[in-house]
Amino acid sequence: MVKLRLKRCGRKQRAIYRIVAIDVRSRREGRDLRKVGFYDPIKNQTYLNVPAILYFLEKGAQPTGTVYDISRKAEILKELRITH
């Protein structure tokens, strides 16, 4: 099963997260299938590759809670009507 979840990057006390499509059994820093965006909680910036996210969601990928909230704020999930 594939999930859309956060992958931690950056340095100590200055985390930046990549939003990736990854196998459920992989570790947080494990090998991802594809990078679909990033999230910077300190600057409160996000970049989302919308076509890639919609592709994985249509194939059955499940977003984690945080990725779901980020996508909901960007109004991506209105097209697919996904509930968490």
UniProtKB/TrEMBL annotation:
Compartment(s): Plastid, Chloroplast
InterPro entries: Ribosomal_bS16, Ribosomal_bS16_CS, Ribosomal_bS16_dom_sf
Main location class: plastid
SUPFAM superfamilies found in the cross-reference section: Ribosomal protein S16 (SSF54565)
This protein's GO CC annotations: chloroplast; mitochondrion; small ribosomal subunit
Keywords: Chloroplast, Plastid, Ribonucleoprotein, Ribosomal protein
PROSITE patterns per UniProt: RIBOSOMAL_S16
Family indicated by similarity: Belongs to the bacterial ribosomal protein bS16 family.
Record's protein name: Small ribosomal subunit protein bS16c
Lineage: Eukaryota, Viridiplantae, Streptophyta, Embryophyta, Tracheophyta
